[in-house]
């Protein structure tokens, strides 16, 4: 089966910024069981002044808000609440879930640079940059999450719980998290989070 590209599946105006709600609709289209956690339902108007969102925000505002409004009737469960790193670790440790998290890429990269003692050698823009990672493992002995980062050349990375929390709770992320069930389900009640 050939999987269509994002350009084929999304309207042209939706491609400059992929919002988490876009990913939720994509998961729903492929019948993947998930729960969506966010602290803001809709596009947060305070982001309109952020460099990352600025160019596209006014175009996305109506579209994104409409996706949120139609989510429930489309079978998408959006829970307006924060989810802690502890909760994430328990879900991941169960072996039944992975998560896609919206993070501030700078804060994620900055923590790696601090760990490598390279931060004083690397300049660049420190403004918010939205970025998605997959959280697929957790080591309770070291309090580290295993992530897949599409911006990294490595297959996987370990990041501390503190680093993940800082990158996930950064202004601009709304703490968006898609908790994806790895179990095959026959009914909608399979994922009770």
UniProtKB/TrEMBL annotation:
Protein origin, superkingdom: Eukaryota
Pfam families documented for this protein: Guanylate_cyc_2 (PF09778)
PANTHER family named among the record's database cross-references: GUANYLYL CYCLASE DOMAIN CONTAINING PROTEIN 1 GUCD1, PROTEIN GUCD1
Designated name of the protein: Guanylyl cyclase
Organism: Kalanchoe fedtschenkoi
Native organism taxonomy: Eukaryota, Viridiplantae, Streptophyta, Embryophyta, Tracheophyta
């Amino acid at each position: 089966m050939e999987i269509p590209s994002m350009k084929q599946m999304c309207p042209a105006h939706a491609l400059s910024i992929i919002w988490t709600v876009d990913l939720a609709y994509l998961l729903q289209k492929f019948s993947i069981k998930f729960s969506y956690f966010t602290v803001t339902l809709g596009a947060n108007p305070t982001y309109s002044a952020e460099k990352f969102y600025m160019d596209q925000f006014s175009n996305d505002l109506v579209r994104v808000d409409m996706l949120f409004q139609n989510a429930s009737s489309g079978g998408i469960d959006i829970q307006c609440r924060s989810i802690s790193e502890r909760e994430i670790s328990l879900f991941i440790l169960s072996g039944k879930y992975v998560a896609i998290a919206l993070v501030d890429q700078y804060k994620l990269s900055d923590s790696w640079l601090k760990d490598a003692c390279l931060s004083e050698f690397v300049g660049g823009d420190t403004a918010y940059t939205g970025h998605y990672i997959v959280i697929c493992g957790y080591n309770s002995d070291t309090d580290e999450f295993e992530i897949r980062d599409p911006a990294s050349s490595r297959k996987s990375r370990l990041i501390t719980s503190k680093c993940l929390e800082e990158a996930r709770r950064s202004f601009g992320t709304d703490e968006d998290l898609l908790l994806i069930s790895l179990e095959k389900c026959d009914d909608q009640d399979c994922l009770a989070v």
